[in-house]
């Protein structure tokens, strides 16, 4: 039973709070770890929890991020060929004030088309994600599937977040249900994701929504792929499997 599930059953389970704090520390989510430790210490006077909290607080206070200033020029441009991803936005949402500004915008009849290039740096990936997460989930999934799986580690290997995975799973469900992508594309994407070290930690924090969506995605896969993906993503086999 994972820590999230244990805390759903018993929010005052101090051991689960402490263990989840350790896991959060391991993947760099120190602020979230401190919150769990505060909850743990409110329930029990744990020396280990107090020591870990003091360590994390001191580390957070000492963190300084230095960014070297560079001028925009050839030295920060990618040598990779530009590949364009076209995403159509329905007319009924194009006037929404929450829609992000995009570098390329074209109007085709009643639709607005946003253009995203396949990212070659983690900075570009996160910029695109912050825009795409405001759109329908399948838009981000289409964008994600266009990224060569060999680039996953360099783009987001150390910075992958549960929010991204959750949006990806929801989008993959819609793409598969509307037959807008190939099962082999999705399988390759999921297999490659499972090889990222940070992802192996994130699966510990999958909630019921992520597990449900991933099970739906697996339903479109050949049986052998289903078994492998469920094993890699720590999904329990259902009685019907």
From TrEMBL:
<dbReference type="Pfam" id="PF13877">
    <property type="entry name" value="RPAP3_C"/>
</dbReference>
<protein>
    <recommendedName>
        <fullName>RNA polymerase II-associated protein 3</fullName>
    </recommendedName>
</protein>
<dbReference type="InterPro" id="IPR011990">
    <property type="entry name" value="TPR-like_helical_dom_sf"/>
</dbReference>
<dbReference type="GO" id="GO:0101031">
    <property type="term" value="C:protein folding chaperone complex"/>
</dbReference>
<dbReference type="InterPro" id="IPR025986">
    <property type="entry name" value="RPAP3-like_C"/>
</dbReference>
<keyword id="KW-0677">Repeat</keyword>
<feature type="domain" description="RNA-polymerase II-associated protein 3-like C-terminal">
    <location>
        <begin position="119"/>
        <end position="211"/>
    </location>
</feature>
<dbReference type="InterPro" id="IPR051966">
    <property type="entry name" value="RPAP3"/>
</dbReference>
<keyword id="KW-0802">TPR repeat</keyword>
<comment type="similarity">
    <text>Belongs to the RPAP3 family.</text>
</comment>
């Amino acid at each position: 039973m994972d820590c999230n599930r244990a805390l759903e059953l018993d929010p005052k389970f101090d051991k689960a709070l402490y263990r989840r704090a350790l896991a959060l520390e391991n993947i760099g989510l120190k602020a979230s770890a401190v919150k769990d430790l505060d909850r743990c210490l409110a329930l029990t006077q744990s020396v280990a929890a107090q020591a870990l909290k003091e360590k994390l607080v001191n580390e957070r206070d000492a963190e300084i991020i230095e960014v070297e200033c560079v001028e925009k020029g050839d030295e920060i441009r990618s040598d990779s060929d530009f590949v364009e991803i076209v995403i159509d936005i329905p007319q009924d949402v194009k006037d929404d004030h929450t829609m992000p500004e995009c570098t390329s915008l074209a109007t085709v009849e009643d639709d607005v088309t946003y253009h995203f290039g396949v990212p070659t740096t983690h900075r570009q990936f996160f910029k695109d994600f912050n825009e795409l997460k405001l759109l329908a989930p399948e838009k981000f999934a289409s964008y994600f599937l266009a990224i060569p799986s060999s680039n996953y580690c360099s783009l987001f290997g150390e910075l992958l977040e549960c929010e991204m995975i959750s949006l990806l799973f929801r989008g993959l469900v819609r793409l598969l249900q509307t037959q807008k992508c190939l099962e082999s594309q999705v399988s390759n994407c999921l297999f490659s994701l499972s090889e990222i070290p940070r992802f192996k930690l994130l699966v510990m924090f999958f909630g019921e929504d992520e597990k449900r969506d991933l099970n739906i995605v697996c339903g479109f896969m050949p049986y052998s792929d289903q078994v492998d993906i469920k094993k890699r993503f720590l999904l329990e086999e259902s009685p019907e499997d």
